[in-house]
Amino acid sequence: MIVSCSSYFDSHINYTELGNDTRSSEFLLLGLSEEPELQPFLFGLFLSMYLVTILGNLLIILAVNSDSHLHTPMYFFLTNLSFVDICVTSTTVPKMLVNIQTQRKVITYESCITQIYFFVPFVVLDNFLLTVMAYDRFVAICHPLCYTVIMNPKFCGLLVLVSWIVSVLNSLLQTLMVLQLSFCTGMEIPHFFCELSQMIQLACSDTFLNDMVTCFTTVLLGGAPLAGVLYSYSKIVSSIRGISSAQGKYKAFSTCASHLSVVSLFYCTVLGVYLSSAATQSSLSSATASVMYTVVTPMLNPFIYSLRNRDIKEVLNVFFRGKP
User: Fold this and answer.
1) Nearest to residue 121, comparing CAs of 93, 151, 182, 80?
2) Which residues pair with 106 in a beta bridge?
3) What is the pLDDT of residues 222-242, one digit of tens each?
């Protein structure tokens, strides 16, 4: 969910009293391209990416749950991240595939609101879980003797529960505020899904409160977790630099290499979407960039963890080949 705070200063939509019932309105999802010859290619591409995302993340969940040696805080958070990644893509890609297949770009008001309600919390959850995983690595490397005491199952469960609660409450707030807006009929959304900021920009009523709340929650729920990740890794780097042996440094770094790769991929793609939207002001560029954090990142996460993590590779090797 990338929302530019400048939208508040740029949007001066005149309020018009509409006689139409907003809930009966339909929107047009313009997608990534209107070229007919590209539609079969886009359908095959996104179907393949969706299936790979589902299969890859399910394998991570299966691998962790099938081996008792992986029942640790790090892999507990990883299974939650894999589940959330499945949910992120499942709220957007299937509707896009249906629209391409049926050659209809229409989405109802109710479906659009539902898509926003489920998409927003999963993106926020992705952010929270990456922060929690960074804290887990911070404790493991900087306070190894206290790791089992601090990262006990009850505390880990509480971290995930709080992340879910905050994400759902934020989504509920954002959705209820969108429900207060009025929309004209036949509105076009220059995206492949109902993105929150695009919906607010299309409103025919005053969006002052929506813009302010969206800016505040974006800074709070996006900036605070990022600050937590940066703080954790600054402490991790300092701790690793204090290790005398090269082998010890490598071993300490290898425990957080996979997570660092996922964090870099997530925040770089999100930042890329924001910069693309702010620099080009092009709806197509923004929609194309959004594919990175809504589809590409969830697809690549399982590969990063399975290829860079020896424990995961060993479990998957046993699962597929029946031998270690």
Assistant:
1) 80
2) 28
3) 899 999 999 999 999 999 888
